Amino acid sequence: MNYLLNAKNLKKYFPVNKDLFNKASKYVHAVDDVSFSVESKDIIGIVGESGCGKSTLAQLIMGIYSPTSGTIEFEGKSINLQNKKNKLAYKRNIQMVFQDPYWSLNPRKMARDIIAEPMRVHKTVNEYDMDNEIQRLLNMVGISGDRMYEYPHEFSGGERQRIAIARSLSLSPKLLILDEPTSSIDTLSQAGILNLLIRIRDELNLSYLLISHDLSVIHFMSNKIIVMYLGKIVEMGDVNEIFNNMLHPYTKALMLAIPSIDSAGNIKKVEALEGNVPSAINLPKGCRFNARCKYCIDICLQEEPTLKKIDKNHSVACHLY
Amino acid sequence: MGVYDRALEIIDLEVKAKTVSGTAELLNIKELILDWGEIVGIVGESGSGKSILALTIMGLLPKNVFVTKGKILYKGEDLLKKDEKFMREKIRGNEITMIFQDPMASLNPVFTVKNQLSSVIKVKNPKLNKNEIYKKAIEMLDLVKLSDPEMTMNKYPHELSGGMRQRVLIAMALSAQAKILISDEATRALDVTIQLGIIKLIQELGEKFNLSTLFISSNMALIASVCKKISVLYSGEVIEKGNTNDILKEARHVYTKSFLASLPTAGKKGTVLPILEGNYPSILDKPKNCIFSDRCPIVTDECRDKKPTLSAISDSHSVSCFKNLDSDKTDKGA
């Protein structure tokens, strides 16, 4: 199988409590042994509470952090981020859209310069063709090309997010990382952004990693889901499979905790998930979820479960299965 | 509760702002009622006037914003006629309290929880001695379900998590014996699982202490699972209100329908979400008469000539539209 991106046993530990000789005695286990792969045109939804490592995972894939161990393969080639030339070429393929377009766009730059900047850094388009290219990108995201001389404050929240998307598309990437792309904009603009993302995925053959805590957005957009807890993948699989037949107690509890309405206007009953996420420094022995789990058995306190394949498109890390 | 059957009654409220480019109409609310122990949801996009409504009730409007008409009745008295001293000493933070999106901004970073909570209790119960105040504070923190209240007491706000800070603020509201809580996007910055804890707490307090809550949010799913009644705010006007089921299942106003239709749900997977054309009206240049007439796909001359009023279509459900008064559930979305 040809994967676009293949992450193998990815780990990222951040040292804390460094001593005199710069040796750390403890580590934050932000991402701990995560493996997954992205195929072309995949939309992979990543869900989890804050502190579960989803943002660190995104940053590892972006090449912002280098992993403590593990490898990332892109289009079959292992990525070496130490080599500057490799790094630039790799970063061109992966771009990110951030949560809050009020913070992610420089208020002192015109839309034109915001979108042009990546192309100037990577020298992909010369200044002569720049205006045409920017018009093309703006039209693609549904903003009229003659608004390119406006500043971010002249655009609405939804339009700003469109500009951020246009900027991320400017280097013709193959994978976009969308970090909560619609959580800070209004419902009606959100619908427009989601439609736009699906449309450009089909037009440009993109793949997405979609980080969100809005399950209806994840269910609507993605074809695969990764559920993370304390740096580990606890459940992973096809979106319909997960929503119809979720197995891990954490996935069940998380789904129950998030309010949503279905198409017929029925409200889902919600139930609180008790307890807090344990510290990622001193990890609990055995299964990481054992303190909050209703179905905890003896083995859960002793041994950490591994991700097992239950079905063709469904894996879960739990001793119950 | 008591002689007053309504906790809060807003009648014919009109709020305007003076700006350099002219007068802006911010709010025009004919009627909004909050009963004792009830949670009423206000849903709307940004710019719909949700926060201005909260600030008007609290008497915290910016200097260039004025109430030009209307009444806000609390226990039979018009809050708009009260002077600043009365509002500060009797109402704000006492009878009516507000929790905001960012709890860090509402707590003083240089004092401990104990210090801040005790001072509220002391003002309310001047006769209590130090020990009794401490006991009462612990009791309050216990009430909002903070685990280990004694340890929390000695912590500074930055040592607490977002959910814990929000709980401390609710504890402060309760120790001031608040009757009305205004929650302005109070759970937006919180994690999903923490968010649920806070809304469950607000629901419980409503039942236990008859605390009435005005729950302001732009998240329809959240509002629907917390509130029994919902008012939909569009550009400063309530365009539809009713019980949660009325709004979710039998929405009549085109705006409410489009709002619901644009929510991504599992059933709509693989389809293009319907989008309402046009932009949100500018507060300086709102459409005449029907506020929605410039975006409405079924607009007629009548809508531009006459202003629709919020008229009842059932006991609980009213809508402000000339059309769409007949039930037509199949026609969801614009």
Q: If interface size is counted as residues with C-beta under 8 Å from the partner's C-beta, which chains form the largest one?
A: A-B, 38 and 39 residues
CATH architecture of chain A: 3-Layer(aba) Sandwich
CATH H-level superfamily title of the largest domain in chain B: P-loop containing nucleotide triphosphate hydrolases
What value does the average pLDDT of chain B take? 87
How much of the sequence of chain A is in beta strands?
A: 15-25%
- For the biggest β-sheet of chain A, the strand order reads 6-7-8-3-9-10-12-11
Structural class category of chain B = alpha/beta
CATH topology of chain A: Rossmann fold
Helix content class of chain B: 25-40%
CATH topology of the largest domain in chain B: Rossmann fold
Reading the helices and strands of chain B in chain order gives EEEHEEHEHHHHHEHEHEEHHHEE
How many helices of chain A in DSSP terms?
11
Low-confidence stretches of chain B: 327-334
Low-confidence stretches of chain A: none
Biggest β-sheet description of chain B: 8 strands, mixed
